[in-house]
C-alpha cells in the first residue's frame, strides 16, 4: 500500500473538525446508515432515527457530533462506582465535574454550539445526576430546544428509577432516544452495586432496593419500546460482580425491545473516592470487555446489537465522540447573548456530510467490503465475517479516513480486519505521548503503555510515525503502517495481507 489517498481531498466547512481532509463532491444525498452492530437495520423508521446519531450508529459517529447540557444535579439512587462530587458514572467517565446550567442558559449554549459545530446533531441530557430525578429542568430544557432548534434530536440517559411515570412526557416531547443504565436484573447481584434507592419518599437498602430499581427499569423500557422510542441500555462491567450476569441482562433487554446494548468498563480509582475505588474493585481490561461484548452478540449469548464505540463522555461534553470542545463554549460565550440559530447553514453542512458518506459507502460497495453492519439502502447484503481475521489499530481524526499521526493519537480505533472485512470493535484510550517535534520520540513510558494497550493488534495504521515508535512497535510484533486512505479500504486490504502472511496457527478469532 502507498500513502496516497484514493480520493480527492477538499476542505469542507461543515465537516467535523477532526476531519483534516474530507472530499466534497456532487451526488445524491441518501442516508447510508449502519448501526454499530452486525444486526440488520431494515425498518426505515429506525434507520432514519439512527442515521445521524453518533452513539446509535458507529458509522455516523465518524461524522456527527453530540452535545450534553448539565441541567440535572440530583440523584435518587447510590451506585458504588459513583462519587456525587462528580458526574453520573452510569454514562460518564468518573472523576469529571460539569458546570450546572439553567434551562435558559442550556438553550443559549445549544444554539451557539449548533451554529458553530454544524455537524452536532443530537442534544443529550445525561446528568450530572439523573435527569429524571430532576424532571423540571430536564423537560424544560427539552421543550426550549424543541421549540428553537427543530433539526436537533433529543436524547436522554437515566438510571430508570422514575422512568415509568415519565414515559408519556418523553413521548409527547418527541424524544427519540432513551438510554437506561441496567447493571443487573437480579437483586442479589444488585445489592453489591447499589447500597440504597430513594423511592416514593423512603430510602430502601439491600435486595429490596435493587428489586425496586430493576422492576422500574424494565417496566420503563417496555413502555418506551411499545411507543417505538429507540432504547439503548448501558451496563457498567464490574469484574467478579456482574460480568457473567450481563449476558443475561442483554438477553432480557433485547426481549423487551431494546435496540442497542452498551457494555462499558468500570473505571475505578481510589482518588475518585467511590466505594469501588476505595475497596480496590478493578475494572476490566479492554480484552475482557471485548470478550463480553462478543458473548452478548453471539448466537449462543444474547444475539444483541452491541455498541462498541462509547467514550463515557461527561455531562457537558461537546463535539465528536472522543473529542471534547467544551472549553470553547464557556458560560461567558453564551450567557445573556442573543444567538441566532443558523438552520440553513446546518442543513447545508449536513447535506455535504451525506454526500461524502455516500461516496465512502459507494467505495465500500465497489471493493466489496463489509463492516459488520447493514445499510438500510442495501438490506439484502448479509455482512459476512471471514473465518480468519486479525485486529488492527487505526489513528484517525474522523471522516472515515486514516489521517492521524501515531504520536498525536489520544485513542485508537480497533478493527477486525480480513479479506473484505473492516469492522470497528472497540476504541481504546492512550496517553498522547507526542505533543510536538520536541518530545515526539522521547517519552518511552507513555509509548510502552500505548504498545501494551495495542498488544493484541497485528498492525497499527496511521498517517505518520516516528522512527523510535516504529522500531518499538516492530519489536513488539506489531506492524506499523503509514497510510492515508479510507479506513474501511485500508483495514480490509491490510487485514487480507496479514491474514495471508501469518501462519495458520496464529490466525483466528481475536
Ligand atoms: Fe449523550 Fe448518551 Fe444520548 Fe449519546 S452519549 S445521552 S446516547 S447523546 Fe454516547 Fe457518550 Fe457513550 Fe453515552 S458515547 S457516554 S453512549
Ligand atoms: Fe451516581 Fe449516576 Fe448512580 Fe446516580 S445514577 S448514583 S449520579 S452513577
Automatic annotation (TrEMBL):
Domain Radical SAM core, residue spans: 61-308
Protein name: FeMo cofactor biosynthesis protein NifB
Residue segments, region Disordered: 1-34
InterPro entries: Aldolase_TIM (IPR013785), Di-Nase_FeMo-co_biosynth (IPR003731), DiNase_FeMo-co_biosyn_sf (IPR036105), MoaA_NifB_PqqE_Fe-S-bd_CS (IPR000385), Nase_CF_NifB (IPR005980), NifB_C (IPR034165), rSAM (IPR007197), rSAM_sf (IPR058240)
Family according to the record: Belongs to the radical SAM superfamily. NifB family.
Entry GO MF terms: 4 iron, 4 sulfur cluster binding; lyase activity; metal ion binding
Lyase found in the keyword field: yes
Pathway in which the depicted protein is active: Cofactor biosynthesis; Fe-Mo cofactor biosynthesis
Chain intervals with Low complexity compositional bias: 1-16, 25-34
Native organism: Frankia torreyi
Keywords carried by this UniProt record: 4Fe-4S, Iron, Iron-sulfur, Lyase, Metal-binding, Nitrogen fixation, S-adenosyl-L-methionine
Function of the molecule: Involved in the biosynthesis of the iron-molybdenum cofactor (FeMo-co or M-cluster) found in the dinitrogenase enzyme of the nitrogenase complex in nitrogen-fixing microorganisms. NifB catalyzes the crucial step of radical SAM-dependent carbide insertion that occurs concomitant with the insertion of a 9th sulfur and the rearrangement/coupling of two [4Fe-4S] clusters into a [8Fe-9S-C] cluster, the precursor to the M-cluster.
The keyword Secreted appears for this protein: no
Lineage per the UniProt record: Bacteria, Bacillati, Actinomycetota, Actinomycetes, Frankiales
Superkingdom, taxonomy of origin: Bacteria
Cofactor (UniProt): [4Fe-4S] cluster
